Amino acid sequence: MKCITLHNDLLPNSRVIHSLGSASVIAEILHQKFEQGVPLSRQLKDWQRMGAALSETTLANWIIKSSDLMSPLIRVDSG
């Protein structure tokens, strides 16, 4: 595996641009979706029970935008 060095000035902001989702919330959604296999519809019900006014489209958009942010890391890891 190839080692890389990350510098703070190269890292994206802690949130997806133009989003209210924090890095930790988006990371939790990604973890539940891809590591735990929890569908977005079920996650959405959990978030709504906690009082978050979110839609399934919002969760899906956060996943899409996060994948865009992580694509350089994926290219380095697979290269």
From TrEMBL:
Annotated Transposase IS66 central domain residues: 19-74
PANTHER family in UniProt: BLL1576 PROTEIN, PTHR33678:SF2
Name recorded for this polypeptide: Transposase IS66 central domain-containing protein
